[in-house]
Amino acid sequence: MSHILGIDVGGSGVKAAIVDTENGEFVSEKIKYATPQPSNPKNVGKVLNQLIDDFSWKYKVVGCGFPSIIKDDICLSAANIDNSWVGVDLCRYFEKTTKCRAVFVNDADAAGIAEMNFGAGRRKMGTVLLLTLGTGIGSGLFRDGRLVPNTELGHLLYKKSVFEHYASNSARKKKQLSWRAWGAELNTYLNHIELILNPDLIILGGGVSKRFDFFEKYLKVNCELVPASMQNNAGIIGAAIMAK
Ligand code: BGC
Q: What residues contact 175, with CB distance under 8 A and at least 6 apart?
């Protein structure tokens, strides 16, 4: 069974599609709902059930990307999702709520897995970092193709808070920054990342990666820098691959 439903729970949207895990392609339409507010387990559960219905997926296995640190299935952080998730056993919660079994993985780790398997990171050795620029900044770090899970490089300290409050796509929108102004913040962030990690390749993901040509000229890094080839679909695809 290579077709798996992948779900990507994000701070602003919950997206899903059935993925062919042999080639990373969608074999269904993609369905997206706004993340309910407050984004607590009860409200998000309604959206998850709706998606299971939309795809007639009851009693089957699901891969789910989730915007938090996840260890032994337990949600350990909640930067862009309701705080009441912290401490929840995500797999148990999912099975109880939807009657489907699920594999949970950090959303940026999922996006990285997709890009490493079928996208911009394919066959890339060395240190590869996938950054998702969305509501927050997520990071998926790989060394010679192996994931180092649960890195939180959007949370490196910067100015009075953390980098994701300055260089994420939501920061650009909220502060109505020009591409040049936002590009400067993103460049500061990437330079900081380079200083501490020395990656060989940085892949920029998230919805804004499809506009890479708008801000590429403001970014000056030493390593190779490319946009994600699956853009905002990578999280869905990687979650499905993990479940497989
Ligand atoms: C969370 C990460 C997540 C990222 C992208 C951050 O705020 O802490 O776990 O990967 O947002 O959603």
A: none
Indicate whether residue 8 lines ligand 1 (CB < 6 A): no
The CB-side HSE value for 89 (13 A sphere, CA atoms) comes to 6
- Largest Cα separation within the chain, whole Å, is 49
- As to burial, measured by CB atoms within 10 angstroms (0-12 exposed, 13-18 middle, 19+ buried), residue 133 is buried
DSSP-derived 3-state class of residue 79? coil
pTM for the model stands at 0.97
The verdict on the CB of residue 12 being under 6 Å from ligand 1 is no
Amino acid at site 238: G
Ligand 1 pocket: which of 35, 104, 157, 164 to mutate (most atoms within 8 A of CB): 164
Phi then psi for residue 229, to 5 deg, are -85, -15
How far does the centroid of ligand 1 lie from the alpha carbon of residue 154, in Å?
7
CB atoms within 10 A of CB 23: 11
What would the pLDDT profile of 80-110 be if each residue is shown by its tens digit? 999 999 999 999 999 999 999 999 999 999 9
Q: Backbone phi, then psi, for 136, in 5-degree steps?
A: -120, -160
Index of the ligand 1 atom closest to the CA of residue 78: 8
